[in-house]
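Technical annex, item 7. During the second reporting period the consortium partners agreed on a shared format for inverse folding records so that results from different sites could be compared directly. Each record opens with the tokenized structure and is followed by the designed sequence. A conforming record, contributed by the partner at site C, is shown below for reference.
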């Protein structure tokens, strides 16, 4: 993707969705952190189903600790890898209570020191909860970045750093959500829906896919 194409690419995404938000359901920074921690290799739909049950009985670090491992597992067992995720969430809650006064820290380093929290999860929290201009590269953003030519790279970190360099500052805070939603519903993995794509004119992907016959 040529540099001159980046502005209209994001202007078009913004025009279609001026205030994009994550599809994970949450009402506090801790709920967001917990939901993202639980979302690895799981759909937002499945995570929301589980967290509705969990957050109705425990939506603070101390409340999750009070549940204990067995009861926590019971609330999230519909999510893949729930046993590992339950252990990580419980350990994270212990650190939040013991080292951060029950609050979610605002630095990437402190977030990544929490069990089960990697760079992507930390960036989601920094972006969605604290409004920082960072990029959390998940499978959708990785695919869209490479397929469109916006920020091709072999690793999520390489793609992330290229996106930070190439995306105009005015779009950077919301770019994470626009790209995830675009990858989830239009620029899908198996066969992108190019005939429905509003940003196809600026995308390097060729040949563009055609609409299926009626």
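Designed sequence (site C submission):
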């Amino acid at each position: 993707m040529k540099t001159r194409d980046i502005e209209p690419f994001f202007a078009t995404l913004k025009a279609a969705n001026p205030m994009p938000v994550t599809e994970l359901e949450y009402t506090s920074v801790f709920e967001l952190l917990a939901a993202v921690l639980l979302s690895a290799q799981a759909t937002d739909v499945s995570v929301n189903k589980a967290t509705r049950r969990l957050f109705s009985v425990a939506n603070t670090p101390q409340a999750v600790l009070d549940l204990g491992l067995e009861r926590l597992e019971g609330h999230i067992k519909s999510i893949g890898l729930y046993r590992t995720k339950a252990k990580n969430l419980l350990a994270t809650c212990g650190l939040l209570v013991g080292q951060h006064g029950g609050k979610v820290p605002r630095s990437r380093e402190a977030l990544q020191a929490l069990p089960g929290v990697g760079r992507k999860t930390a960036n989601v929290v920094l972006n969605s909860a604290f409004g920082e201009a960072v990029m959390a590269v998940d499978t959708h953003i990785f695919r869209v970045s490479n397929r469109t030519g916006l920020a091709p790279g072999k690793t999520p970190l390489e793609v992330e750093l290229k996106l930070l360099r190439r995306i105009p500052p005015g779009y950077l805070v919301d770019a994470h959500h626009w790209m995830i939603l675009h990858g989830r519903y239009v620029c899908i993995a198996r066969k992108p829906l190019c005939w429905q794509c509003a940003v196809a004119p600026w995308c390097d992907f060729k040949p563009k896919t055609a609409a299926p016959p009626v």
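The chain has two domains: 3-20+134-202, 29-128. The two ends are 32 Å apart (CA to CA). All partners now use this format for quarterly exchanges.
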